[in-house]
Amino acid sequence: MMYVEIKFSMRDCSLFPGTALSCKETFSLLYYEFDAATKEPPFWESESYKLIDRIAADDGRFTNNNEVIINTEVRSIPVTKKGVYFALRDQGACISLLSIKVYYMTCPEITVSFAHFPTTPTGAKVTSIEQATGTCIEHARVEREPVYLCTADGQWSLLTGGCVCMPGYQANVETQTCDVCPPGQFKHGVGELECSGCPEHSAAPHSGSTECRCDTGYYRANHDPKDMPCTRPPGKPRNLTATVLDQSTVELSWLPPLLHGGRSDTVYRVVCDACGSQVAFVPPQVAEEGFNTTDVKVRGLNPVTAYRFQVIAENGVSDQAPHHSNVAVTVTTEAAGSFRALPSDNKGPSMVRNVRITSVKSTEISLAWQPPLDAASEVEMYEVQYYVKGHENNSSTILTTKEESSLAGLRHRTVYGFRVREKTVAGWGEYSAPVYKETGQLFNTGLNLELRFSKPAFMFSRNTDECNKKQPSDCDTLEYRNGEGLVVTYSKLHGVLENPPIVQTHTAGSMTAPLFTPAGHHRTYIDPHTYEDPNQAIREFAREIDASYITIEAIIGGGEFGDVCKGKLTLPGRPEMTVAIKTLKPGSSDKARVDFLTEASIMGQFEHPNVIFLQGVVTRSNPVMIITEYMENGSLDHFLRVNDGKFQVLQLVGMLRCIASGMQYLSEMNYVHRDLAARNVLVNAQLVCKIADFGLSREIESHTEAAYTTRGGKIPVRWTAPEAIAFRKFTSASDVWSLGIVMWEVMSYGERPYWNWSNQDVIKSIEKGYRLPAPMECPEAIYQLMLDCWQKERNHRPSFASIVHTLDNLIRTPEALAKVAQNRCQTALGLDSTDLTQLGSVEEWLSSLKMSRYLENFESAGLSDVQSVARLNQRDLTTLGITLVGHQKKILQSIQTLRTQLAVSMAEGFLV
Description:
This protein is an alpha+beta fold. The strands form 18 sheets. Strands 30, 31, 33, 34 and 35 form a 5-stranded antiparallel β-sheet that branches. Strands 40-41-42-44-43 form a 5-stranded antiparallel β-sheet.
């Protein structure tokens, strides 16, 4: 809308007598709209100009020259084009124009509701309303779009929407500004909230804080209000006690922690590393929630087994703390059959039926039975108790999920008693009436294998079949391409052993056996390759898992067949668990698929806490997967190298015990590993070692020599027994040799066996009778056990059962580990790729090691030739002033090599 203000004066027509007919007392205001500007105004055409109004002197006309009356008139017009011309038409009035003002109306600039509205012109008509959109002031944001209406009279009307101050800034309504919160105060939300002081155990050191940072050791959960004080995790539970209710049930109870960290959401979580999937908690333990009670029953445990339970107290901020408060207790379950405690209102299972003997051999009896007719629920497992008649108090037990069992390792011509009972969710049932049977006559002198039944544990495996997936040191192999087999003959034991074994043994024919013979459940490994349909072996030994239960989180490595991933397995009714997932490459051939799943059908047959356990497979969808447990610390060799020197000797011996126990189980399954090495042993967070990687493993042949003949392939020379290298025959005794090498790897913290020597140097040295030297600070008892494992005659090596027994004794009597082994020249190994005996001086020798900095130390001690250097030990190096452990180790390794080369040279008739 355009406005025109005219100031004028007009004479009254009465001042002009005689002209009344032509005198006028009005004039006309006209306008002309035009879209283009011109230098000259448009020509006057009455048709083109529009009349705005005929204006009269409303305020009056003056009638004499001494009194002038000034009139002011305002008129408005709607403007629709870019420009406008105004015209005034006088048709007989005596008028004087004093001023003409052309203008338009605006609504003024304004800040309201924390939004700024600029100067806004009014509309084109008197009835027009213009809508203006505001912009938020500094440190404010839109809550709802701010809109103000500008009316034709230049007034603002009907405000809607507006802005609010951002977090860290408080609203000042009077000044319409958002003021920053000062240090020590915060504002976490938007709007007209005021800045407030920090809650307890927190601070805001800077201006404009949206929340207060928690003090060190205090935390705020994601769901906690920002004005809530920071809190801490609870203290550890108190007075944890474990009560053995029966051989499979333990009750844990504890008191709440003294300090709850300022929170009221404390819950408890029970961790049992050795518990398998059959173990259940009452009340059930939900991983995301935990217990809110201070007692829990743990069911489904194995009899006569040590379990370590950790009770962890947690609250809403425990996931942010680096350490969780926990208390642990170790408890050993009772022997099966000793007693049982069932709730008074819970009727236990009834008795199994028709226990009968199905087979009798000289040292083995098989029996079968039928489940009870009135079992309250599904039978979970059976327990077979057996004993020599008249010695019921000295019984043994085994567990099985089948309705039959074979007991091996019995004494011939001896009467045994057998009783069976079942276990359901209600607990153990009553033992059946005893059945007695005498074993048969022993007709041959062959050694009976000892076989034991164990409960499963979850393991993580990695595929090491492909050589280029391993470290270069692991790929030193001899490869056989022909298919010829060699025969090796074993003679009777005679003479005195070069290194008498510390494991007590006795001989039977040409075999060496432990003096004790524990009996166990007889299970034998079945080679999946013997199945006409390989898929049948997979169905029999591996559990199918629905792919929807598996979530892949990250790729952690690669294998021969595809990626190895870390993920989660969530089975119905069970807590979520972390697993390792092997995947088969898309587009793999049918043969690759069978080879890939064959490993699963091998793993699926093993149930032992120190051997990898298979969770299951995915074969009905792509990609095909093998699911095993995720092992936090990875391979043993890498784990030891990363943690060089950090463990006590007893901890290292405990690792060896785990490995030996797993190998004992495999050997009792009639299974030869063939590739036992630290790289093929995995370690979990509790330092439990588990045997993995069965890429070179095969079943022992059933003939009397119990050996496996390879049909080609690569043999890891540094870990393989000499008879296996020479004749390509593998036995459990050759696995014992490999275990000795693994012992050396463990005690040397992952050092490479035989260092950088070539395969031929290793083979030549072993054939000459040389053995690896004792690692630094290695106990003499452990080194002697290594030498026992490295006996040249395989029949002179101890069995895995004997090794486990020896390690158990050493763990029970740690003082036996105090004496450190002293290296002897005759136990050093053979040839190095560099002949150190050809070095003319100590200076050259140190230079070859890049240790010339110690030349003055050697010269001051009068050591001038390599022969004198060969007599040095670790204590001598310390006396010389060489105190860095890494330098000592490097120099001692070279000294061991020097001793070996000097000894070999003299043995071959060369004097150096």
